[in-house]
Amino acid sequence: MKYILTLCCLLSALLLQAQSIDLRGTVADANTNQPIPGVNITVRNGTGTATDANGRFGIRVNPGAVLTFSSVGFQAQEYTVTARQTEIRIMLQPGNTDLDAVVVVGSRSNSRTVLTSAVPVDVLPVKTLQRTLPQNDLNQLLTYIAPSFQSNRQTSSDGTEHIDPASLRGLGPDQTLVLINGKRRHTTSLLNNQGTFGNGTVGTDLNAIPTAAIERIEILRDGASAQYGSDAIAGVINIILKKNTGQFEQQLTGGTTKQGDGQLLKYNANYGTNLGRNGGFINLSLEAYGRGSTNRTQNNDLIIFDQSANDYYFAYPFAGDNGADAAKSRALDDQVLKQKGLNRDDFNFHVGDAGIRNVNTFLNLGLPLKGGKGEFYAFGGYNYRRGTGYGFRRLPSSASQMVYSIFPNGFQPNTGSDIQDRSLAVGFRYKLGEWQMDLSNTLGNNRFDFDITNTVNASLQAKSPTSFQAGGHAFTQNTVNLDFARYLTGVASGLNVALGAEFRAEQYRIRAGQEESWRNYGFVTDPASGTVSNPSGLAGGAQSFPGFTPANAGTFGRSNVAIYSDNELEITKKWLVEAAGRFENYTDFGSTFNYKLASRLTLTDGINLRGAFSTGFRAPSLHQQHFSYVSTTLLTNGLLGNSGIFTNDSPVAQALGIPKLKQETSQNISLGLALRPVSNLSISVDAYRIRVENRIVLTGLFGFTPFGEPVAAIQKLLLPFQADGARFFANAINTTTQGLDVVVNHSTNLGSGRLTTTLSGNFNRTKADDQFNLPTRLAGQEDVFFSPNERGLIEVVNPRQKINLLLNFTGTKFGVTLANVYFGEATRNGFPYGPVQTFSGKVVTDLSLSYTLRPALTLTAGANNLLNVYPDQQAYGNSYFGVFKYAPVQMGMNGAFYFVRLVSLLGKS
């Protein structure tokens, strides 16, 4: 019997192949009759292609196939292929830039548009926006055009200065899944642990992807773990790479802040060409830039006191030191410095953005297989980044940290980074009868190495180096996917069936630094008693960032397998129902099953009601399970003690009753309305509620009160392990996030050009439950387990409201882009030392003016933060004695940035 079935399948496949048609055609603008390059052409439950620079395309299809033609700025159009057709011409009507766009994410039916999707999806035309907007990396670009997305550069925060944490819908960096061309992107190896937003999380480095390589970005604003797996609690960001051919684009950008720092020089290039005669292509991108550091410290408030003829030290004013008294003190200080042959710059702090050198390359490749039934594809890239950040300044009065023979006036350590990011995805799409198969392998690696300069190991005194290799970490992820999809026309008004399997292997590694970077050479052991002392009292390890020790180092791995089913049933042409389920099993914490139900109801033509309910999860990262960073100190009893971050399977964790990590779980509910009252206006409104249970956070330091006083009961538990303080990752809290997204798009002809207007907003609120998941042995330690400071980082450190108004006019030779972004209030909690401070909402204005010098050359000039708006100044108690004048909240603390950009575009855009 099985041989008969096999023979029938082969005959059916041959019959289908014999009936297929080599269809060619042209796509043009219905108003101008000009060809449109880069139009996406998708076959319902089949392969796809795109038009070339001349608006031409070729594709092999069966009679009766339904093709969808879509391009940003035009209304999507369907076309049914009839028998014996070999040549067609499609005329697209100009339309909305949002609701008509066909999307890949959120649906495995490849003919779903933003308007007809059952879940909210934003489509951001990065290809065109990045030519005129002032933002020069992907995190900042998304922050200014997508209200549900927020990212801020951090300062004085070790590795977090070099890889920016980002948020979607007010949730953490590790609760958003990033895809490229629909395939899972690896995270970084960096675990944020310096008290910034995203503390204790691991995110994806979006800035490792060159903007020049991106066609568009789709942001799915809905829980999607049942469809895509771990991390998709807040939503999914899907980056679609360019595949245009016959075009060579170059960009050269220069800029500086109003204060004259943060200088930028950036070069972008993108080139695409055809491969063969059957629609094959390769698209290559290069991005290189240097960004200078910025400094927004309040150095005018630093005061130098002359302690004696041979000694002096560095100190700060009291809160009342201002006005005439402060000016008089400053004059006296300068007089003392002059007598000593010094100047104030010898004592300055540096607080601001890190300096960055960044090089990106990316490729996107597609090769149709012989016979037109499938294609081979590949994409990936390499990113190298060199960063220089700044630690806290070591003062001459801090004798235990000083080597006076090297830095008599104190020093500010530099935290250097060497970051390499590599990725490669390869795969085959193939038509097996009525099924579309996709087999792929996606490999990604991120490596982060630290070097600390302009610093010392004080325990070595005059023998100390001033630079150290402090070690680093790396993360590797390999994902294999096998997916099948089929569209059944005979079930109701149509049924799309998708199912598949995934295998993912991950590895996390910590590398130790050179011995001088972490060792304290001042410890002495008494041979008689065995006790250890540090008679010099000097600190060990590289100041600012002691290196990873051999005890921290190790290689850790895990794997998981998943199977899923994702189905969409059109009960009628007006009513769509979706159901998805996914089972995953991890080698390190077990299994999980998640599901999703969604529906879209077309009330009238152009008015759609949509809603979804889903469960989700996020597996604890290998970083959270295995990261340890421990410094050795001397206890009061003469024994060595360890203080720092310990793993959850360590004896220290077991002594305190800290359980092993398990997955976060979530429930996501959304309800929305998408409508297009007229052809050039679209409106969408979506409300959501996301409940996350067993959310993982990094605790405070057990063994001490929040104010640094020893806790005898905890210290007693830690004593057998020679530890005096310990932090852990724990499934400590449950949170609820509620919010509303609003997006309004309008486009119209204006004179000889076109004006596109987008008004969008996100309003969200995250609240942690008052009841913690506290181990019994730690009763009374609530403010250490989950401190008010950590609560603030999760609930209110990001703006709860953000509203974007973007106006873009494109004329024959002249273009204007005007953007106003309102960043709502943000709050920082300085617990236990500083006050709670709320920073008032601010409006940031961007303006760009473009002029086409000649057909292939455009000049753009403008500004980010044109009006030089800063966040409120920090309260004195949170500002480190007045040094940190601004906090990196809302839009950052650099003020106005001015830029000039030349864009050379050879071929059709």
From TrEMBL:
It is found in: Cell outer membrane. Keywords: Cell outer membrane, Membrane, Receptor, Signal, TonB box, Transmembrane, Transmembrane beta strand, Transport. InterPro entries: Beta-barrel_TonB, Beta-barrel_TonB_sf, CarboxyPept-like_regulatory, Plug_dom, Plug_dom_sf, TonB-dep_rcpt-like. It is a multi-pass membrane protein. Residues 1-18 form the signal peptide. The keyword Transport applies. Residues 116-236 form the TonB-dependent receptor plug domain. Residues 379-866 form the TonB-dependent receptor-like beta-barrel domain. One of its GO terms (cellular component) is cell outer membrane. It holds the Pfam family CarbopepD_reg_2. Belongs to the TonB-dependent receptor family. This is TonB-dependent receptor.
